[in-house]
Amino acid sequence: MRSPTTISIPTFWRLFSLRHARTEWMQTVLLLLILGLGVGTFLSIRMANRAAVEGFQLFTESLKGPSDWIIEAPTNGIPVEALPRIREQLGSLPVQIFPVVERNLTRVLPSTGDPGGAGSTIRLLGVDLVQIRSVASSVDNGSMDDFWSIIDDPDHLLVSREVADRWQVSTGDPVSLVLNGRKVSFTIRGILPEFRDSVPLPANLAIADLGALLQRLDRATLERIEVIVPEGAGREATVERVGSLLQEAFGSRWSVTSPTDKEVDGAAMTAAFRLNLTVLSLIALLVGLYLIAQTLDATVSRRRTEIASLRSLGLAPRDIQRLWLSEALLYGVAAGIVGLLMGYAMATITVEAVTTTVRALYRDTAQTAATLRFSDGLLAFALGIGGSLVAAWLPARDAASTPPAQFLRLGKRIPPFPVFQHPWIGLAAIALGALLLFLPPWQPRPGTTVPVMGYATAFLWLTGGTLATVGSLRWLGRILHRTAPDSAPARLAASRLRQPTSRHQLALSGFFVAIGMAASMAFLINSFQHTVTAWLEQRLQADLFLSSAGFQGADSGQRMPGIVLDRIEKDPEILELDRYRSVEVRVNGSRTTLGGSRFDLLGDRQRLLWINGPLDPDSRPPDTDAIAYANENLIRRTGLAVGEAVRLTTPSGPVVLWIGGVHADYARDNGSLLVDLGNLESWYQFSEYDTAGAFLSETADPAIVQARLREAHPGLAVRQNGELMDAALFIFNQTFAVTRALQLIGLVVALAGLALSLLSLLRESGRELSLQRTLGMSRREIALTTALEGMGIALAGLLSGILLSIGLGLVLIYVINRQSFGWTLQLAFPWTDILLLASGVLGLGLLIAYATGWLYLRKWKAAPL
Asked: Please, how many CA atoms are within 13 Å of residue 152, restricted to the half-sphere of its CB?
């Protein structure tokens, strides 16, 4: 009995895989780039998401190391006079106390005298320079004689090297900055080092001595107090003891948390946003998997003689399958390397886009660079290898299951994969996905829902749709045949479409997924933009809008003093001034925002976009303290309802709010409650405000009043209604910048897959091409045949993808978006986007298909008939 024939995987790679890779080096390089692009896209989003979460760490950590406990006040800060009491409460415990004042500052441009905008914004820390003397003493200060000369200068400022380069300043130069709506002058007294030990300092950092900064601010309160327990024996017990003492003494008045709590809170806030980006990046990888599947399928077709020879020599089918999967493994390793390099390069761009969105929607975050970790490398290889093996499964099984004689008899065409001959499987997957939509979302923690069923439905529709849409090629082939029965190129292209190979199917699948993803995201973005525009038109009723020039949300620390607004309110051309202030609170364990504005202006000058309500204020129960209007995401996250009461803890004691209505609010997704400004002022005792809206008299010219206010208050940003609308829409477009990039990547991969598919089919059609040339077909006619064939694939993918996008768009809007963010959007079909997408895809598909046939025929060699 003859022993079975075997061949080692390294020998197979050397004699077969690498030889063919060298022969077809352009196709191999393109394949690795495309698959690497899919892996790299996922990695770049992963690294950008991680950088955004890590950016929630405190800026002070880079100066003195991580804190163990953080004491914060919700609104007016912690009085400086409380420091001795905190020290006394901790007794003889070995702890260090770091008081901190933190602000966003915006530079006033010396050329115009106007604030320079977000690009000139820095994060200023007021700290005790003596405590961080090791950092302050190492500044590049030029003529600074000693460390103490910094503190002696009340106008001193130490800035990072990047800030100094961006502002083109050096030691000794004066700078004008906006501080709490006022223009103040500082002197650059030194350039901070780039590292503290081995820890990099933030690029947009500036520091000043705490005492001097408090004088500049004319206040005696701190943003927070950080407590550090030094290393040593029993440190963990000491940390726990310190936390207990602080919570016991000050927990009812102030917030006592750990840095881990802040990072977890930030991660929870952005979880839905980051998860959606991750899922979208996987779509690009999925399109790449279809591409590698069709490439390996083409490899099986071109090397059928080798397969038949190996089978004739006695290799078992499972050995053939093992060898072909090993070749996919080789591709996967190479793709992992390429994806790792591309992912790191792409992350430098993605980090900026993601952190910009996080700042706009959530809270300020430190600008951190993308970091490549060992786990990222493992993930890159896992995705590259795992994806390649999955994509190669059908081609490898096909190579193993086909008898040698059939390989030789089939000529140059490989039949479709058996699974594509059963469209009912795809229809069943689509039906199952629809049923999953009726299941509730996953709730990992109170106030947080993850639309797992929505994602599962999208996956089932994407994969099931690839099986159900294959039949569309046959229909297009029949239509083409009847449309141009006398055209030889049309008849040849129609015959190929009516009898599609596995290559046609995989190219169509890649197009289907890419088009469906791109069009559905256009559906979501268009609906979101339409909804936000309508909401802004409803909310932005004032003529002018005021804020501190450095204001970038409540977390920026930049607010307008009430005395400044009092003077502005006395302007004879200003009829009403609606001030707004927000504080952070907890509702049923969920972090949310409590805002205050003038309720006497509601319905007259100010409007809310009501979803439910409002109820009659006179029906408020007597045992409640005030009426509050909740936004939609708070209701969805907490389970509250109109007419219910919610209890909050304020510095003035507990208050009970009665929810009198639900309104739409697309500014943030953490939920909000809106109360009358007078109530908020009495509970929190503040005298600074986030923003204000000015309503002018009918005879006033907004431009003239705006210019007058800017001249009188250079530290304020004064915008007209249209300017604020444009700024809001600009932030909206920035928010979806990454999404649009992912759309483009998916389409690029699909178009590349079409080119590779047609190139593979041409290479397999040597005898057909020889026969066509013998029968007198010109090079242009043969290229036209290829163009019509590629056009058919692109058209089938486009039509089926648009149909998919309608279903996916509805799932994104009514399931994934609503369960992730709690927003209800108005449907707006993106007719313009779809038209541009369709014309672009069909035009490029036709061009690529024609060019593929034309260029291939230049170096084609006739095969024997």
From this structure: 6
